[in-house]
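>> received
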Amino acid sequence: MEQSPASNPSAAKILDVLFAFSMANPHPTALEVANAAGINRTTAHRLLQILEANRIVRRRPGQSSRYELSARVLQLSETFLHQLDDLRSISLSYLTTLRDRTGETAALHLRQGDSRVGVVQVESYHQLRRTYSDLGKRVPLYLGAPSLAMLAFLPQEQIDRYVPQNGQPWPDIEFRDAVELFGWLADIREKGFAVSRAHRLAGIVSIAAPIRSRAGDVIAAINVTGPEARFTPQTIAGMAEAVVHAACEISERIGYSTHGTVPSTSRSNRTDR
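>> returned
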């Protein structure tokens, strides 16, 4: 039986190590990798050695205490870009259907480590509408319905690392601390979709559901979004059903079996209580 990284701690830690390489710090030391991945230095060394043996990372020339990604990662990048094109192509018709059914802008967002990135949208026909002018911009995984729809289904140890820690400022949104956020995430897992209000823009509501890979990992989310005045409890229920259905169909198209996993959308999400 295929095991996903979410249920395989070693695989999850390897991924966390890879995500420690970033534009802000492309050549981290083992200690910096350990801190970024939330693991101890000994484990970081061991995992870096595994990645080095498989030519995924290498020692930085002239700075042996630092690591960098190797050229072999380009092979993964090419595969990812091909899959991204496939996911975009597959999702586009569903986004168009969502826009036509709900009347609101529909979009696809991809998870990238502790962030998500909007990659494609189909805009509403309404004159007053939400338009993503920042496609490609990284957004934290605790901000907005597309982020929350992905964050809710990650392993708890990853969730703990992807939310603001003690002393870090919380955005002025609907939950005030990690305890409230964890309650939201439990609610999202039960319903299968997330609803956010004014997380990024005042007066804007978003409804999102996760997309899963063949292995069952949450890799993306789709959403509909628009002005709060058009998002009543009644319209939210219908929109949520449409979004969840589209997300499940996209997941099936890329190989995930959703048989028996489609949640009920008969009750409103926590944000509407």
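>> The first strand starts at residue 57 and ends at 60.
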